[in-house]
Specification:
The complex is a heterodimer of chains A (97) and B (484). Chain A has a domain of 39 residues. The longest helix of chain A has 18 residues. Chain A has 97 residues and is mostly helical. Chain A is 39% helix and 4% strand. Chain B has 484 residues and is of the alpha/beta class. Chain B is built from 15 helices and 11 strands. Chain B folds into 2 domains: 337 residues, Amidase signature (AS) domain (Amidase signature (AS) enzymes), CATH 3.90.1300; 74 residues, no CATH class. Classes of the chains: A mainly alpha (97), B alpha/beta (484).
Chain lengths: 97, 484
């Protein structure tokens, strides 16, 4: 399996990362060689094997649906971390345009 | 011996016996920082003033005769992907260069409750992705044993800080070997608990089904002591579990009745000859201590790295979607929202992080999901089963922590696959979720440290620590310190 430049451009869109032409070429080569390595998994017989999605075999953990207050100093820190504020709201480019 | 060279146990006793103060202990650490940090580059941030105030408060508690917590007055460092409220937390990335942590990670909260003094945040590969700290957006940490070489990674800063005696212990994180591989490179002890023993709340997520906070210290006993302080079930992490606590004393150095498994797969042709020799000597030592050596096979362990390098990037691509320039972190300009995302992530993430996001996006994308992600999840099941079966027959599994000693800075940087191979022996513990530890096992001809790797059954850390401690006490390799 090789990842050509068309595939790289498609992944760029999915992953929301802008790449330069030089990076596209480099990633195409590097990702292809990593995929070649991981292709050894094709040798393994997985017939009838269930997938493991997590490292524990725990069950659902429940809690009551209660509001836990966020201390004001935490609220302040959250807002201070925002790139741009308008009043107490985080300002972002429009989603629908 | 200088105070900063003491073990946590010795320092705690000294403080309680009033042989010295926490202020003197913290001062000794900062003296070492001043002497070595320019060469080693272990830290991204240091909190000298705060640490001194903390030491003063601890000293007052001691002189008043208050009840003391388990790490009272002990200076430690924390990897910079673990949140410490109201302190910058970069994860080694430009995208979080100015991010001020909103809250404390559960492990930081527990360190504070245990009375520990956090002296600084340590360097790491960006978002903990790497095996050398060369992927940090800010600096490359150097190996205190040879400054031309890498300390390993991704917890290279935490490990180098402990190795250079700039603090008595440190927290790291281990997703595929990130506390153990650097510990092997720098002659420290790196302990990765069973997945679920320690809360991940406030650890910046890399690959959630593999990530665990681990401890770094100068001895097994200290690493266990630190783990005891931070372990436990946490309502804020639903994968954390209530389990038998970590033992903190290991009086028994006799290993009679212990079965040590040695898988032949861990000694293949990729293994450095000097590393192999040290590990074979260690196994002989375990036998002398009374353990029974059992040759065994773990046929699917060979696939561990391939499973890891599909599942981990898949989880990475999903976890790092949150860094989009909207609510916090770097925001780059763009004509529309989509461009803001793309430009922010292009500028904010370094090459390795972008590479893993791209790889994970591929493995999860329509048409490839089942062949890559799905297949890897199934092989993961087979590896877990193989480990469970193995631990019915043996108590611990040993081998080398890493296939080579520390490599030169720049040596593997251009070739990601070669870099990934440094994790070949450590990743299987994360793939299976079992506990593992790396302990000092001697040196190569060039005086570079070698680490012995031990794994045990789920939540059976205490047996693993008992074996590690017995080896350590008999070999005394852990006492060696670098000549900086």
């Amino acid at each position: 399996m090789t990842i050509d430049l068309t595939e790289i451009k498609h992944l760029e869109e999915l992953a929301r990362i802008a790449l330069t032409d030089k990076e596209r070429k480099q990633y195409s080569k590097q990702l292809s060689s990593i995929l070649e390595y991981v292709s050894k998994l094709q040798e393994v017989d997985i017939e009838g094997v269930e997938p493991t999605g997590h490292a524990t075999e725990g069950e659902n953990v429940w809690r009551d649906d209660e509001v836990i207050d966020c201390p004001l100093e935490e609220v302040k820190r959250i807002l201070d971390n925002a790139p741009e504020l308008k009043d107490k709201l985080i300002k972002v480019k429009g989603v629908f345009k | 011996m200088a105070l900063n060279e003491l073990s946590i146990q010795e320092a705690s006793k000294g403080l309680r016996d009033k042989k010295f103060s926490s202020t003197e202990l913290v001062d000794a650490c900062f003296k070492s920082v001043k002497k070595h940090e320019k060469k080693v580059d272990a830290f991204l941030n240091l909190f000298e003033k705060e640490a001194k105030a903390g030491a003063k408060a601890a000293d007052e508690k001691i002189s008043r005769g208050d009840k003391l917590a388990m790490l009272e007055g002990i200076p430690v460092a924390v990897k910079d992907n673990i949140l410490y409220a109201d302190h910058i937390c970069t994860a080694g990335s430009k995208i979080l260069e100015k991010y001020n942590a909103v809250y404390d990670a559960t492990v930081v909260n527990k360190l504070k409750e245990a009375g520990a003094i956090i002296i600084g945040k340590t360097n790491l590969d960006e978002f903990a992705m790497g095996s050398s700290t060369e992927n940090s957006a800010f600096k490359t940490t150097k190996n205190p044993w040879d400054l031309k070489r890498v300390p390993g990674g991704s917890s290279g800063g935490s490990v180098a800080a402990v190795s250079a005696d700039m603090c008595l212990g440190a927290l790291g994180s281990d997703t595929g070997g990130s506390v153990r591989q650097p510990s092997s490179f720098c002659s420290t002890v790196g302990l990765k608990p069973t997945y679920g023993r320690v809360s991940r709340y406030g650890l910046i997520a890399m690959a959630s089904s593999f990530d665990q906070v681990g401890t770094v210290a100068g001895s097994t006993q200290d690493a266990a002591w630190l783990l005891r302080a931070i372990e436990g079930i946490d309502p804020k992490d639903s994968t954390s579990m209530k389990v038998e606590p970590i033992a903190t004393e290991f009086p028994d150095e006799n290993l009679k009745g212990i079965k040590v498994g040695v898988p032949k797969e861990f000694f293949d042709e990729g293994l450095d000859a000097d590393v192999r020799a040290r590990i074979e000597e260690s196994i002989k030592k375990l036998e002398e201590l009374g353990a029974k050596i059992v040759e065994m096979e773990l046929p699917h362990s060979d696939y561990g790295l391939a499973v890891y390098y599909l599942l981990m990037p898949s989880e990475v691509s999903s976890n790092l979607a949150r860094f989009d320039g909207v609510r916090y972190g770097l925001r780059e300009k763009g004509k529309n929202l989509l461009e803001v995302y793309k430009n922010t992530r292009a500028k904010g993430f370094g090459p390795e992080v972008r590479r893993r996001i791209m790889l994970g996006t591929f493995a999860l994308s329509a048409g490839y999901h089942e062949a890559y992600y799905g297949r890897a999840q199934k092989v993961r099941t087979i590896i877990r089963k193989e480990f469970k079966e193995a631990f019915k027959k043996v108590d611990v599994i040993v081998g080398p922590t890493a296939p080579t000693p520390a490599f030169k800075i720049g040596e593997k940087f251009e070739d990601p696959l070669t870099m990934y191979l440094s994790d070949i022996y450590t990743v299987t513990a994360n793939v299976a979720g079992v506990p593992a530890i790396s302990i000092p096992a001697g040196f190569t001809k060039d005086n570079l440290p070698v680490g012995l790797h031990l794994m045990a059954n789920y939540f059976d850390e205490n047996k693993m620590l008992r074996v590690a401690n017995a080896y350590e006490q008999a070999s005394e390799w852990y006492k060696e310190i670098p000549n900086l």
